[in-house]
Amino acid sequence: MPELPEVETVVRTLRKKVVGLKIIEAQILYPKIIKSDISVDDFEEDLKNRTIEKISRIAKHIIFHLGDVVLISHLRMEGKWFIYDKNDSFDKKHILAIFKLSNEKLMCYQDTRKFGTFHYQGVNEYLNLNPIAKIGLEPLDMAVQGKYLYDLMAKSSKYIKTILLDQTLISGIGNIYADEILFDASISPLNKGNDLNVEMYQRIADSSRKILKKSIDMGGTTIDSYQPEQGIDGKFQNELKVHTRKNEPCYKCGQKVIKIKLNGRGTYYCEKCQS
Ligand SMILES: [Zn+2]
């Protein structure tokens, strides 16, 4: 599942490729991808001749600004955006939507699992509508500090890792980065929200920013050398410090990294360094 840094990488890559171009034709091959109350015919018709003015991101939502409307794309499990030349031959099997652009390239949404979504909303309304309205601030926002997280989370008796995954509180932290953030902050995922003080929440805020920024920077460099037009999926080799490192020595103390299940999610941590 692409996480926030991967989605940011997708957005940066798409920006370079398609901003300023016009959509000449839109073709929806999987109608259920559209979650807004509009028919496929109307959707395709309405998109015609709209210019992609900019592409932004809120949490893991990719937002195409098209004049007075926005198209909001969420990749969910396996969604990917590809740009093809019109003469490229490609397998349409998992392509759910094709946008023919004014430079004659095809911008295609591919999704083997078909969990991805499109919302189509007014540019003046979308911030106040779901899915965007219910999303919490992301850790890259400097408003997210120890006191902010404490006020938001310290009443909860849920595990801190589970709380960090709740996108309505803080957005953009997925399973992998939650493990990495808690390792960096030296905080056990088994703490409850109400076990932590402001100083500990400050460590979480600082580690969240540090790790998400680093991952975005790495994603940016990796994807540029990785034929972005043939795979804007944002997957990049990440130097994970704890996630996936079961039984391997902790980078800080050498003790074996432990893997447990926490509310059904694979969770990696070091018992010695994280308390
Ligand atoms: Zn350790």
Automatic annotation (TrEMBL):
Domain of life the protein comes from: Bacteria
Bound cofactor: record note: Binds 1 zinc ion per subunit.
Keywords: DNA damage, DNA repair, DNA-binding, Glycosidase, Hydrolase, Lyase, Metal-binding, Multifunctional enzyme, Zinc, Zinc-finger
Binding, DNA: H94, R113
Domain FPG-type: 241-275
This enzyme's EC code(s): 3.2.2.23, 4.2.99.18
Active site, per annotation: P2, E3, K60, R265
GO biological process, any: base-excision repair
Alphabetized SMART domains for the sequence: Fapy_DNA_glyco, H2TH
Keyword RNA-binding annotated: no
Catalytic activity: 2'-deoxyribonucleotide-(2'-deoxyribose 5'-phosphate)-2'-deoxyribonucleotide-DNA = a 3'-end 2'-deoxyribonucleotide-(2,3-dehydro-2,3-deoxyribose 5'-phosphate)-DNA + a 5'-end 5'-phospho-2'-deoxyribonucleoside-DNA + H(+); Hydrolysis of DNA containing ring-opened 7-methylguanine residues, releasing 2,6-diamino-4-hydroxy-5-(N-methyl)formamidopyrimidine
Alphabetized GO MF terms: 8-oxo-7,8-dihydroguanine DNA N-glycosylase activity; class I DNA-(apurinic or apyrimidinic site) endonuclease activity; damaged DNA binding; double-stranded DNA binding; zinc ion binding
Record flagged with keyword Signal: no
Xref: Pfam families: Fapy_DNA_glyco, H2TH, zf-FPG_IleRS
Residues covered by the Formamidopyrimidine-DNA glycosylase catalytic domain: 2-116
Cofactor(s) for this UniProt protein: Zn(2+)
Role of this protein: Involved in base excision repair of DNA damaged by oxidation or by mutagenic agents. Acts as DNA glycosylase that recognizes and removes damaged bases. Has a preference for oxidized purines, such as 7,8-dihydro-8-oxoguanine (8-oxoG). Has AP (apurinic/apyrimidinic) lyase activity and introduces nicks in the DNA strand. Cleaves the DNA backbone by beta-delta elimination to generate a single-strand break at the site of the removed base with both 3'- and 5'-phosphates.
Similarity-based family: Belongs to the FPG family.
Assembly mode: Monomer.
Name the record gives this protein: Formamidopyrimidine-DNA glycosylase
Native source species: Spiroplasma helicoides
Gene encoding the protein: mutM
